[in-house]
Specification:
The longest helix is centred in the middle third of the chain and has 11 residues. The chain is globular, with a radius of gyration of 23 Å. Strand 15 and strand 16 form a beta hairpin. The chain is mostly beta strands. Belongs to the multicopper oxidase family. Its main location: secreted.
């Protein structure tokens, strides 16, 4: 029988004995429902019957408890994107890394503390493509009595950007991924699409008031530009890390990124479009629909109902890449702000990681639909990551189970080549197109400082990839185009007030330099946050070793952690290219 909310006694909020800290409790009923954003009714998995899913509101220092009841027909996990999960790595929700999936007619309770971060994050499913409809906002406010490091806004407004397909979710696993049919803002497609002309998100504002926009890109595969007609915004946080106030008329968000921005209603009374459009950085293998922008509406109090909204012109064509780079590279951290820490100077682990797409050889007498008649594969230092099949990687590490993974992920690619402008001139360069398929990890000593140069390659397509690290924020010391030069480019790195992220867009045919402190024991994914690229294997995993005390060591998993069993009647996100078990 399906589980119900009555199976749990769940008061919404328990106040603890610690001043200004609380236990915030939610029930997530995952179930299939019928929705109709466009002209066609579609059955989708949802949390509590809504798209997007429920917003979680907590304060820094709170304990969050979420009971997930899986009454859908899918294996699922829920990932708390950007939450550090200090002392709670079993709660990360990374499918087959921190846990096996929650199977249909089963449940699991996530419980973790939220410490050392404030701002806007998101939660989402972490089984391939289910994030399309299983996602929502996770808002972390300061502890009671602590102000924001910017003027208090009149009102806070979540804006969630989504992709929509008028097909069964199982079909999203076709490779290459099908082109989406629409984009949504807070679940609504707006007047750019048939059958949704009268269904548009509308924000009513009062002239002179300031609003905090909590912006989330929950789209599966697409970076998105965002712009408000005739208005500037002031960015005050990215990925729940405070920034130096940065004024801009346009912003770019990769899948999984969040931005907090102050909007002051300082224009004449009227109506103004808020618009998003896809950022096409190259000949993407995760295609996006052509054509129009996707719009929502700001309506000033007192605006005439007959007033025509002001339009905004979003970047496109040749100005898209420089516009995206200008916004991304100009953000800096708020030095001295809440939870700011100086950049660590001494680096114990240095890695140069080539990242992008490669090929997997087509089986004999089989027709494959990728370049050169092969399959598409992900490549991290010429490795394609294979997910474990019978036990989560973190359990294999904790219980010292052999045969699940190897501890040999390389710090460098197997050979040097023209990374950004790849061409095949030798047999060795041809072999670089075919990464080794392997479940390999990189082990880090507790509290070591790690620096990673992520070099985007042009082996197949030099598009921008959004790289997401679980369990940590990282300093983004620099961005650039072309091949990274350790002498020339190191002099340009920002070691004073670099932006902090959990997800960063690596420029097309370019690079980023990241640094973080490995102070969180457990197994942590580092992967492309375009879901179309997860089955390809643009993934690696760090294992952070235990510290010197029980407080800094990986603890045993909860007794009710889901176990892996294979049921062929359950949809487990198969792909046509890569065999993933769940």
């Amino acid at each position: 029988m399906p589980l119900s909310i009555q199976d749990f006694f769940v008061p919404l909020l328990f106040f603890s004995s610690i001043a200004s800290a609380a236990t915030v409790e939610h029930v997530f009923q995952v179930k299939n429902v019928v929705v109709k954003p466009l002209c066609k009714e579609q059955m989708i998995p949802t949390v509590n019957g809504s798209l997007p899913g429920p917003t979680i509101n907590v304060r820094e220092g709170d304990t969050l408890v979420v009971h997930v009841i899986n009454n859908s027909t899918y294996n699922i996990t829920i990932h708390w994107h950007g939450v550090f999960q200090l002392k709670s790595p079993w709660m990360d929700g990374a499918n087959m890394i921190s846990q096996c999936p929650i199977q249909p007619r089963n449940n699991f309770t996530y419980r973790f503390d939220i410490t050392g971060q404030e701002g806007t994050l998101l939660w989402h499913a972490h089984v391939v493509n289910l994030r399309a409809t299983l996602h929502g906002a996770l808002i972390i406010r300061p502890r009671s009595g602590r102000p924001y490091p910017f003027p208090k806004p009149y009102k806070e407004v979540p804006l969630i950007f989504e992709q929509w397909w008028d097909v069964n979710i199982e079909l999203l696993n076709l490779q290459p991924a099908p082109i989406c049919d629409a984009y949504l803002i807070n679940g609504l497609a707006g007047d750019s699409y048939p059958c949704s002309e009268n269904r548009m998100f509308k924000l009513k504002v009062v002239q002179g008031k300031t609003y905090l926009l909590r912006i989330i890109n929950a789209a599966l595969n697409t970076h998105l530009f965002f712009k408000i007609a005739d208005h500037n915004v002031t960015v005050v946080s990215v990925d729940a890390a405070y920034t130096t106030p940065y004024v801009s008329d346009v912003m770019i968000l990769t899948p999984g990124q969040t931005v907090d921005a102050l909007l002051t209603a300082d224009q004449p009374i009227g109506k103004y479009y808020m618009s998003i459009s896809p950022y096409i950085s190259a000949n993407s293998l995760a295609p996006v629909p052509p054509g129009h922008d996707i719009r929502s509406l700001i309506i000033y109090e007192g605006a005439k109902s007959t007033a025509s909204p002001s339009m905004s012109l979003l970047p496109s064509g040749t100005n898209a890449i420089p516009t995206a780079h200008r916004f991304s590279s100009n953000i800096t951290s708020l030095v001295g702000g809440p939870y700011w820490t100086p950049v660590p100077g001494q680096v114990e682990e240095k890695m140069f990681v080539t990242m992008g797409l490669g090929l997997d050889r087509c089986p004999p007498e089989t027709k494959c639909n990728g370049p050169l008649g092969q399959h598409i594969a992900g490549s991290f230092n010429n490795r394609t990551f294979l997910m474990p099949e019978t036990i989560s990687l973190q359990e294999a590490y904790f219980y010292n189970i052999s045969g699940v993974y190897t501890d040999d992920f390389p710090d460098q690619p197997p050979m040097k080549f023209d990374y950004a402008n790849f061409s095949v001139r030798t047999d060795s360069e041809y072999e670089m197109m075919f990464p080794e398929r392997k479940t390999s990890v990189k082990t880090l000593k507790f509290n070591s400082t790690v620096e990673i140069v992520v070099q985007n390659t042009g082996i197949i397509s030099p598009e921008s990839h959004p790289m997401h690290l679980h369990g940590f924020n990282f300093y983004v010391l620099g961005y650039g185009f072309g091949n990274y030069d350790a002498i020339r480019d190191a002099e340009k790195l920002n070691l004073v007030n670099p932006q902090m992220h959990n997800t960063v867009g690596v420029p097309p045919g370019g690079w980023v330099v990241l640094r973080f402190i490995a102070n969180n024991p457990g197994a942590w994914m580092f992967h492309c946050h375009m879901d179309a690229h997860l089955p390809y294997g643009i993934i690696m995993t760090f294992i952070v070793q235990n510290g010197p005390t029980p407080e800094t060591s990986l603890q045993p998993p909860p007794s009710n952690l889901p176990q892996c069993t294979h049921d062929p009647t359950i949809y487990e996100s198969p792909t046509t290219n890569v065999d993933l078990p769940y």
